[in-house]
Design goal:
The protein is of the alpha+beta class and 246 residues long. The chain is built from seven helices and eleven strands. Helices cover 26% and strands 22% of the residues.
């Protein structure tokens, strides 16, 4: 049964499983996000999607990515209160990630050009991470490896490999680098190596070469992972996708 709600004074219909963010996006109503991706579950970490909702005469701020729609809900995406809190949040992110182009762009859209808070080292790789959790969720929910996670609490919170050691269960697929909104994780393929850099360090992974054309087409760990998951013989992956078509 369709649910009726209003966003910025306009009435919309939604399904019971929808969130305020999914309805707003479908309607073309802009709500800023840093930790949202349709590929993974929502987490509400960045707080950039805060909107003001009114329910039974009471108003409060909620994260649009997590808040479920309900009949008669009134949503204001750009209320004075919501914008004020968003600007404070982006100031904190600017202080943490002064060199991040994504954070700077979002700050500019909110009219914020500088932060009142202490600025981190602009050249530090670790300070590009906004702790959005996208990398950990894609690794666990999509890849199925759960090779990285958010550890510690408070100001010590960070994304880390198991025991701060070399890759562990990482299969070097690169999903974390592709989904990272700020470039805190990077990936470079160089010859027979794939080099992945996390805030805590850099790890080199061996690439598998195609027996026919010699192309380094995938990390060895990823090929081994796919063989285990599919139940196929490792020899099925001796050739790159192009050569397997021949």
């Amino acid at each position: 049964m369709a649910i009726k709600l209003t966003i910025n004074g306009r009435e919309f219909q939604a399904e019971p499983c929808d969130t305020v963010l999914t309805v707003a996006k479908a309607a073309g109503v802009y709500i800023p996000t840093l930790c949202h991706s349709e590929a993974v579950s929502d987490y509400g970490a960045c707080r950039m999607c805060l909107v003001e909702v009114e329910r039974r005469g009471r108003k409060r701020l909620v994260t649009a990515c997590l808040y479920p729609v309900e009949e008669g809900l009134k949503v204001t995406t750009d209320s004075e209160k919501a914008l004020r809190v968003r600007r404070t949040v982006i100031e904190l992110l600017l202080a943490r990630c002064p060199g991040s182009a994504a954070v700077k762009e979002m700050a500019a859209a909110l009219g914020v050009t500088e932060s009142r808070f202490s600025i981190a080292d602009e050249n530090s790789k670790s300070d590009a991470c906004v702790l959005c959790g996208l990398c950990t969720r894609v690794c666990a929910e999509v890849v199925g490896a759960s090779a990285i996670s958010l550890v510690n609490r408070g100001t010590e919170r960070e994304v880390a490999l198991p025991f701060y050691n070399e890759a562990g269960d990482c299969i070097a697929c690169g999903s974390c680098a592709y989904i990272c909104p700020t470039g805190a994780i990077s990936l470079v393929d160089s010859g027979n190596k794939r080099i992945i850099s996390w805030p805590q360090g850099t790890v080199d992974f061996a690439m598998k070469a195609c027996l026919n054309c010699g192309t380094n087409y995938a990390p060895v760990r990823q090929v081994e992972f796919m063989a285990r998951k599919s139940g196929l013989s490792p020899s099925e992956f001796d050739y790159c996708p192009d050569c397997r078509k021949l």
